[in-house]
């Protein structure tokens, strides 16, 4: 996300930002190849925009055996990955600016997200990492669904729809992937946790505790695997931030967190975010945190 993203930035710091068409057309969350396979640890994937309606595969109807659990420890678990934004959102400003209900207020359906100074779009970054994360989790036996992919609608989905995808899938864990657009010098990652919201159609109270557990595990493993420091501008060095203004969290009925992997506008972080080998580490760190959470839950 970014300070220019209503699903991420503090309200007092929001400002308008649109990725230029040359950026969005040439660079996700989020691009990618049709039919992604398992990534090599240092491999960079081809990147493309777009969004598809993924299909949730049915969970096993028979409880896994001890041998099954050893070979596929996440068999029977469902994970929803939400790649932030959509690379073609900038072509649909009327649609993404439409206000939607987030329980305790109304917000834009979505935004374009941010980009590096060289034009690498946040939406491309998030989709690439989402594909890598999906491959890692599926290797462990999990059923994984993305909120959107490279085929299908070329904008959105709206933040309320993203939450509903996780809810309908009865996800055991959900994660929304982003990168920030803060000022130069602000760097590091942070994980956003849902605060207690009970208003309108939102009631996060049942998921606050498990979401914090998920977020703490993801933050710990992400930091260890990537070497990225905790944010120096949000979270007071804890790499954790609690929010009650994000529709993707407010409307979730399953354990869910957001992760801001770094600041795309800072040169040091941008060099990492644009590296295929680092993005693989980012996916690995998220995967290890999610696996740890699911094996304990």
Automatic annotation (TrEMBL):
InterPro entries attached to this UniProt entry: MurNAc-LAA_cat, N-acetylmuramoyl_amidase_3
Keywords from the named record: Hydrolase
One Gene Ontology term, aspect cellular component: outer membrane-bounded periplasmic space
Pfam families: Amidase_3
Domain MurNAc-LAA stretches: 163-291
Upper lineage: Bacteria, Bacillati, Actinomycetota, Actinomycetes, Kitasatosporales
UniProt signal peptide: none
One GO term of the biological process aspect: peptidoglycan catabolic process
Protein name: N-acetylmuramoyl-L-alanine amidase
Recorded GO MF terms: N-acetylmuramoyl-L-alanine amidase activity
EC number, as in UniProt: 3.5.1.28
Domain of life assignment: Bacteria
Enzyme's top EC category: hydrolase
């Amino acid at each position: 996300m970014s300070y220019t993203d209503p699903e991420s930035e503090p309200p007092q710091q929001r400002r308008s930002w649109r990725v230029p068409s040359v950026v969005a057309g040439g660079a996700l969350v989020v691009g990618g190849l049709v039919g992604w396979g398992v990534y090599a640890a240092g491999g960079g994937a081809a990147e493309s925009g777009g969004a598809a309606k993924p299909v949730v595969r049915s969970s096993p109807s028979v409880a896994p055996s001890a041998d099954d659990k050893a070979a596929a420890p996440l068999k029977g678990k469902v994970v929803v990955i939400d790649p932030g934004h959509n690379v073609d959102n900038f072509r649909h400003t009327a649609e993404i600016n439409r206000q939607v209900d987030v329980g305790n207020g109304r917000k834009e359906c979505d935004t374009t997200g941010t980009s590096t100074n060289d034009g690498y779009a946040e939406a491309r970054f998030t989709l690439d990492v989402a594909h890598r994360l999906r491959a890692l989790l599926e290797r462990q036996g999990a059923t994984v669904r993305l909120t959107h992919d490279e085929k299908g609608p070329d904008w959105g989905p709206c933040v309320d729809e993203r939450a509903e995808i996780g809810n309908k899938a009865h996800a055991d864990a959900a994660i929304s992937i982003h990168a920030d657009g803060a000022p130069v010098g602000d760097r590091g990652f942070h994980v956003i946790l849902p605060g207690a919201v009970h208003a309108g159609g939102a009631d996060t109270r049942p998921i606050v505790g498990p979401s914090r557990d998920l977020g703490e595990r993801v933050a710990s493993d992400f930091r260890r695997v990537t070497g990225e420091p905790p944010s120096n501008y949000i979270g007071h060095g804890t790499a954790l931030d609690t929010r009650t203004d994000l529709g993707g969290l407010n409307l979730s009925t399953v354990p869910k967190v957001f992760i801001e992997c770094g600041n795309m506008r800072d040169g040091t972080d941008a060099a990492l975010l644009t590296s295929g080998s680092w993005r693989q580490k980012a996916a690995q760190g998220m995967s290890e945190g999610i696996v740890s959470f699911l094996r304990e839950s």
